[in-house]
Amino acid sequence: MRILHIFDHSLPIHSGYTYRSRAILKAQVARGWAVEGVTGPRQGVSDSGVETFDGLTFHRTTAHRPARAPLGEWREMRALAERIDSVVDSFRPDVLHAHSPVLNALAMLKVARARKLPCLYEIRAFWEDAAVGNGTGREGSARYRLTRAAESFAVRRVDRVAVICEGLRGDLIARGVDGDRIMVSPNGVDMGMFGTPLPRDSALAAARGLNGADVVGYVGSFYDYEGLGDLIAAMPALVAARPNARLLMVGGGPVDAALRAAAAASPVASHIDFVGPVPHAEVERYYSVIDVLAYPRKRMRLTDLVTPLKPLEAMAQGKLVAASNVGGHRELITDGVTGTLFAPDDPSAIASALAGLFANRSGWDERRATARAFVERERNWSSNVSRYQPVYQELIAAARTDTSWSRLPKVNA
């Protein structure tokens, strides 16, 4: 099979989005499929129209002239559609596979109709909800409603829809989308890349003052919806219960300055350590010195509908996970079995949950082993990618026998 993927951005940019993209492409290549990617104008300027990273080929779209919405988005979509169309000529794919945001799906649809190619649209989060979570949009605004309408328009016109979790699938079904047209391709971990935990890095622990400490960590992007301000606010109560508690913050993002200011103003500021962003190849060193990974996401539509990737990486690293009790986390974590869930938006609940974990280490080994086994069994990309195969195959078969490819038979996946 020959699959052309359409992305917002890709390697060498490092983000949860690009790590999932890389994992999908690598796993599909390992199955013997021919895969390449096209990225939109938001990838930024590149020296070449085609770039290769980590053995994967990406075709770049020339950045458009800046313009205010919605003209800017229309230009992006037109430029991306033109680039997809040109790559179709050279790569000759069997299937077009676009990944959110919705502009990618709309650009893909234009080419799919003209070229009579079957297409799959994969939603990782609803763009309008992501904007609210990032602080760049407001729920119920005109822009929010327009983006939601565009999403609904796209999912009704592509041949198949993929989503990363049941929360997104349920939302689409509530909009009237036939559930049999929606496959779930959950977030996973490339165990070959991230599944062999390093031994504790004693030198790093000593350098960060973590020897003998109860270490809570967060590794990821600093967005407001991640609830990291609540984690910092929980530290005085946690330190009162566990005087050797330390918080290690690894990463960066839009609320970095605000979080650092909150930490500096905390009465336990000396117990909070901001590392900043680190190269992906160095992340496992920091996992090795952390006892419990904390994910205190706020409760909102985005976090209730979407499953994050980072808790799965922590489980694969054999780490304990504690997370807020929102819908996206509940799809990944069984409270008391594979992790600990605490009330969202509540620093006292965070402190209580973390203090309880450190006070009782007797079940740690069993819980870490159970969580890692869950990732290996159900969230391992080498097996997850097989979910695409029956969908691709039926799309290809139907396109070859039925020229009206918008009326394809249903796939139960």
Brief sketch in words of this structure:
The chain contains 18 helices and 14 strands.
Biggest sheet, strands in spatial order?
A: 3-4-2-1-5-6-7-8
Task: State the total count of DSSP E strands.
Answer: 14
- What is the mean predicted local confidence, pLDDT? 93
CATH architecture label name of the largest domain: 3-Layer(aba) Sandwich
The CATH homologous superfamily of the largest domain: Glycogen Phosphorylase B
* Main beta sheet: 8 strands, mixed
The number of domains is 2
Shape verdict: globular
Uncertain stretches of 5 or more adjacent residues: 404-413
The termini sit apart by 19 Å
**What is the fold named in CATH at topology level of the largest domain?**
Rossmann fold
Protein model, in words:
This protein has 413 residues and is of the alpha/beta class. The protein folds into two domains: 2-188 and 381-407, Glycogen Phosphorylase B (Rossmann fold), CATH 3.40.50.2000; 192-378, Glycogen Phosphorylase B (Rossmann fold), CATH 3.40.50.2000. Helices cover 45% and strands 17% of the residues. The chain has helices at residues 16-30, 71-91, 102-115, 127-133, 142-157, 166-174, 191-194, 202-207, 228-241, 256-265, 283-288, 301-305, 310-316, 327-330, 347-359, 364-378, 381-384, 388-401, and strands at 2-7, 34-39, 50-53, 56-59, 95-99, 119-123, 160-163, 182-184, 214-221, 245-252, 272-276, 292-295, 320-324, 340-342. Strands 3-4-2-1-5-6-7-8 form an eight-stranded mixed sheet, sandwiched between helices. The protein has a six-stranded parallel sheet with strand order 11-10-9-12-13-14, sandwiched between helices. α2 crosses α3 and α9 (228-241) runs parallel beside α10. The longest helix has 21 residues, at 71-91. The radius of gyration is 22 Å and the shape is globular. The model is unreliable at 404-413 (pLDDT under 50).
